[in-house]
Amino acid sequence: MPKAIIFDLDGVFIQSPYLSDRFRDDFGIPTSEFLPALKEIMDKVRQPNASPDFTYWQPYLEKWGIKFSEKEFFDYWFNAEKANEEMIALAQDLKRQGIRLFILSNNFAERAKYYDDTFPWLKELFEKVYYSWQTGFIKPDPRCWQNILTENNLQPEDCVYFDDSQTNTQTAEGKVGIISYIFRDKNQVKNILPATRKDEEIQTLKKFIENQGKIFDEKLVSYLKPEPCDASYSGIDYQITYGNQKLIGDSRKQTSAGKIFCEIRNVSKNYPEVCVRRALEKKKNKSDDKTTLIIECGPPSIYAPFSEKEKALKEYFDANQDLAGTWEHIYLVLHDGNVKLR
């Protein structure tokens, strides 16, 4: 997962019909006439110290016989712009994982003010929104991305960039070195990035329910409760965490190389340490007597019988009650069953 993701704003998090299409349909202004005017004006107002946007539009509106006051014009334009709720939900999940999020947008002062007043999630989710009218750098100027890297102590390889403009993605990747993608939709972003924390939690919860011989129904999952509840399922609150996946992965590699085959077959001595200790230590301060802790352990051994693993894990837990916290229940989720520790 990258340390930071830089997103374009319009066309990604905020979507609307093309203004040129609306002027064509509502006022009969040909697209071939409207688009040159739009480009000319946007090239000016996206710069710092530009005159008020409406002053550039007035001559064209008068020419086209459209009687808009400044307020009526901006209301007509901006009120058609809607938040992309699916992308907001994804950004919330990415931020929750500790990924730094930034917006890079070619925009002008009046529109930025409308966005700030109308879309509070811009300030809540993104570490900073970089508007061209404030920075003086207009995409595809490479300094747009270099400015973000410098200000935030990031390297190009730390970041991924999404934009709906091919010119911008080509510059970000070709001249700055940031891996870049032309934005299509939420699913594309999710498929490009490794699994999000929310996806992992869903899979862990699914395995936990299925290990009980039940059918998992994602419609019963809720994320409305505050910490320490990561997710509720059918009215039960769960905190979801993981055993030491690196040690588990190392164990798998050694096993496949034939180095600890016998130890793994008979449950290695460090197995409880791998599956339990670090997860319990990490979550102890969050423990709550109304929440169930489930720990995804992964399969450090496909050879040891479930009964042997269950016995070793329970004995370890009984001998280390100081790690337990106040959780209502504690379960370990293995590939072949759940182990109830409390």
What does the model show?
- It is a single chain.
- This protein has 342 residues and is α/β, with parallel strands linked by helices.
- The protein folds into three domains: 120 residues, HAD superfamily/HAD-like (Rossmann fold, 3-Layer(aba) Sandwich), CATH 3.40.50.1000; 62 residues; 144 residues, no CATH class.
- The chain is 47% helix and 16% strand.
- Helix 1 packs across helix 2 and helix 15 crosses helix 16.
- About 6% of the residues have low confidence.
Notable traits:
elongated, alpha/beta, 5-stranded parallel sheet, 16 helices, 342 residues
What's the topology here?
Elements: E1 4-7, E2 14-15, H1 19-27, H2 31-45, H3 53-64, H4 70-78, E3 82-83, H5 85-96, E4 100-105, H6 109-118, H7 121-125, E5 128-131, H8 132-135, H9 143-151, E6 159-163, H10 166-176, E7 179-182, H11 186-192, H12 197-210, E8 221-222, E9 231-233, E10 236-242, H13 245-256, H14 261-265, H15 271-283, E11 292-296, H16 306-319, E12 329-334, E13 337-340
Parallel strand pairs: 1-4, 1-6, 4-5, 6-7, 10-11, 11-12
Antiparallel strand pairs: 2-3, 8-9, 9-10, 12-13
Helix pairs in contact: 1-2, 15-16
